[in-house]
Amino acid sequence: MSVALSNRFQGGKAFGLLKARQERRLAEINREFLCDQKYSDEENLPEKLAAFKEKYMEFDLNNEGEIDLMSLKRMMEKLGVPKTHLEMKKMISEWGC
C-alpha cells in the first residue's frame, strides 16, 4: 500500500498521509485495549495508551508496525543513552527478540 502512496505523492504529503494512516490504526488498537475487560483495572489506561501511541509514532517512521534496529538506535540516542550497532544487537539478543 505504501508503494501506491509513494507513486501518487512525494515528500511531506506522502509522509503526512502515512502518519495519518498510522494514527488511525493505532487509535483502533487503543480502542480495543480500552474495551477489553482484562485491562479495566489498569490505572490511567487512556493516558498510558495515548503516551505510548505518541512515542511509537515518533520512532516507527515507515509505518511497518515494528521498531527496527535503526529506529531503536535513534530512540536510545534521544533518551541520552547512545549505543553502537553491536551494543544494540547484543541488547536485542539478550531480550530474546
From TrEMBL:
**Protein name (Swiss-Prot/TrEMBL):** Allograft inflammatory factor 1 like
Name its cellular compartments: Cell projection, Ruffle membrane
Organism of provenance: Prolemur simus
Gene Ontology molecular function, alphabetical: actin filament binding; calcium ion binding
Report which superkingdom the organism of origin falls in. Eukaryota
Name the membrane topology term.
Peripheral membrane protein
Keyword Calcium on entry: yes
What's in the GO CC field?
actin filament; ruffle membrane
UniProt cross-references to Gene3D superfamilies, sorted A to Z: EF-hand (1.10.238.10)
Listed under GO biological process in this entry are:
actin filament bundle assembly; ruffle assembly
Among Pfam families, the record links this protein to: AIF-1 (PF21008)
